[in-house]
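Recall the central idea of this unit: under ordinary conditions, the amino acid sequence of a chain determines the structure it adopts. In this exercise we apply that idea directly, starting from the sequence alone.
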Amino acid sequence: MSQIIPTVTSGIAGPLGVLHLPRLWQKASLDAVGKLHSDYPAAGAGFDQMTLDALGIERDAFLAYIKETKPSYTQCEQWILDQKGGSLDSSAIDAHNAAVVGYNHDDATRGAILAAVGIADTGAILDAVNLNNLEDWQDFYSQEISG
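Accordingly, the structure predicted from this sequence is:
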């Protein structure tokens, strides 16, 4: 069975406007059917947990819902709304989105990612969203394209 490297970026939001939620849904969905690449958690401690915390959704409840229901993305968003009484705390979502966009990896992590993708670390790329994208794309390329 193939293991899929998720390439949906943390920098994208669905209709609810929550950054990273589409990526979290994709990872959890792949994991629910045994197809998530082993280097990726279904719901890890970083952006995944930040997103669940901003939504006020328990990690285990979210993962169980995904595993049992295998929802489409829009069904997942509706489930979240249903858990929250039909609306989200817009200030919590705004703060979450700012935290995702504003998060920078430490120097060692940044340097390792840039070295792995063949880009000199000039300090031009600091944010975790773009660094994580580069790492995902390189991993995808190495596994699926270059063989």
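The first helix runs from residue 21 to 32.
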